[in-house]
Amino acid sequence: MAWLYLLVAGVLEVGWAIGLKYTDGFTRLWPTVGTVISMILSVGFLGLALKELPVGTGYAVWTGIGTVGTVILGIALLGEPATVMRLACVGLIVAGIIGLKLSH
């Protein structure tokens, strides 16, 4: 169950990271509300996951999921560049996430 909680926490992290862009500096009410709720839920699910997982593994995987998801959605939704270097670095992060999962 801990890994499922961690996956949900990571997806919610992507939600609040992308949501920050839409808050326009926290000047837009509903995007701000959604972003803050996503932040709270993300940290809550991370806390649940860390009841069973080592903190180093859990935190690294959480931030890795958030980073990879945010980069992918930044490319898909916000027109950010999809350079070879960026995609290679995302691949390294994914490899790290997989390595941490396998080493646990």
TrEMBL record:
<dbReference type="GO" id="GO:1990961">
    <property type="term" value="P:xenobiotic detoxification by transmembrane export across the plasma membrane"/>
</dbReference>
<feature type="transmembrane region" description="Helical">
    <location>
        <begin position="59"/>
        <end position="78"/>
    </location>
</feature>
<comment type="similarity">
    <text>Belongs to the drug/metabolite transporter (DMT) superfamily. Small multidrug resistance (SMR) (TC 2.A.7.1) family. Gdx/SugE subfamily.</text>
</comment>
<dbReference type="InterPro" id="IPR045324">
    <property type="entry name" value="Small_multidrug_res"/>
</dbReference>
<feature type="transmembrane region" description="Helical">
    <location>
        <begin position="29"/>
        <end position="50"/>
    </location>
</feature>
<dbReference type="GO" id="GO:0022857">
    <property type="term" value="F:transmembrane transporter activity"/>
</dbReference>
<dbReference type="InterPro" id="IPR037185">
    <property type="entry name" value="EmrE-like"/>
</dbReference>
<keyword id="KW-1003">Cell membrane</keyword>
<protein>
    <recommendedName>
        <fullName>Guanidinium exporter</fullName>
    </recommendedName>
</protein>
<dbReference type="InterPro" id="IPR000390">
    <property type="entry name" value="Small_drug/metabolite_transptr"/>
</dbReference>
<keyword id="KW-1133">Transmembrane helix</keyword>
<dbReference type="GO" id="GO:0005886">
    <property type="term" value="C:plasma membrane"/>
</dbReference>
<keyword id="KW-0813">Transport</keyword>
<feature type="transmembrane region" description="Helical">
    <location>
        <begin position="84"/>
        <end position="102"/>
    </location>
</feature>
<keyword id="KW-0472">Membrane</keyword>
<dbReference type="Pfam" id="PF00893">
    <property type="entry name" value="Multi_Drug_Res"/>
</dbReference>
<keyword id="KW-0812">Transmembrane</keyword>
